[in-house]
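TICKET: design request
STATUS: open
ATTACHED STRUCTURE:
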């Protein structure tokens, strides 16, 4: 399975990624992980990426694409992969297609988890995180036994700045603006699988698996 996973903040993408990599025994490859690994390993491209990141600038497409190509050539990705956070702009998607074609591979599917923006706002703005251990709670769906106190370590639960409602709305708007052309690109290519992320975690997972099974073995 060669997969790309898309979904806005709060759609449950991380949870589904964990389940998919176990199901198909493939590595979960995120943009952040790739950049950190390249920098840690002191590759030429990693050094270039570090220069931009240290300066607070976006890493150029050609550097990111090169780092992705290096990562996908590693042995654990020979049997498949799950890309998360890449590609973003359409030129990255075209470059990925070209790289895979040159190496005798192709994407199996691009899974896009869809959730109504109002539901995402409620999910994210109600989130509370333990400032000590990082455990995640929610004011409606996963309340702590004692308000404001983590069940696990008794640390204080905080409302992160990026989870405030106005910030959440802005994050979703930015995501939509950046990602819609990419979604259209994969829709036109026939690779896009739209999944309803408003269901339970297990229902979403079953829908993804069923769609992928149908694609691989119709």
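STATUS: resolved
RESOLUTION: sequence designed for all positions
ATTACHED SEQUENCE:
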């Amino acid at each position: 399975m060669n997969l790309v996973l898309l979904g806005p903040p709060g759609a449950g993408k991380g949870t589904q990624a964990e389940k998919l990599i176990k199901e198909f025994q493939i590595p979960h490859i995120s943009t952040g992980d790739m950049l950190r690994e390249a920098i840690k390993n002191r590759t030429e491209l990693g050094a270039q990426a570090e220069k931009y990141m240290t300066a607070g600038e976006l890493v150029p497409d050609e550097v990111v694409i090169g780092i992705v190509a290096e990562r996908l050539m590693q042995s654990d990705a020979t049997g498949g992969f799950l890309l998360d956070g890449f590609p973003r702009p359409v030129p990255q998607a075209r470059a990925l297609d070209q790289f895979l074609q040159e190496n005798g591979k192709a994407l199996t599917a691009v899974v896009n988890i869809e959730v109504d923006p109002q539901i995402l706002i409620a999910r994210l703005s109600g989130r509370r995180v333990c400032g000590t251990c990082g455990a995640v709670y929610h004011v409606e769906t996963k309340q702590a036994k004692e308000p404001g106190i983590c069940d696990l370590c008794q640390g204080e639960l905080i409302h992160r700045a990026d989870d405030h409602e106005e910030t959440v709305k802005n994050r979703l708007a930015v995501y939509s603006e950046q990602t819609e052309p990419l979604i259209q690109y994969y829709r036109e290519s026939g690779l896009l699988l739209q999944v309803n992320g408003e269901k339970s975690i297990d229902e979403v997972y079953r829908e993804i698996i069923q769609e992928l099974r149908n694609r691989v073995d119709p």
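CLOSING REMARK: DSSP finds eight helices and eight strands in the chain. The first strand starts at residue 2 and ends at 6.
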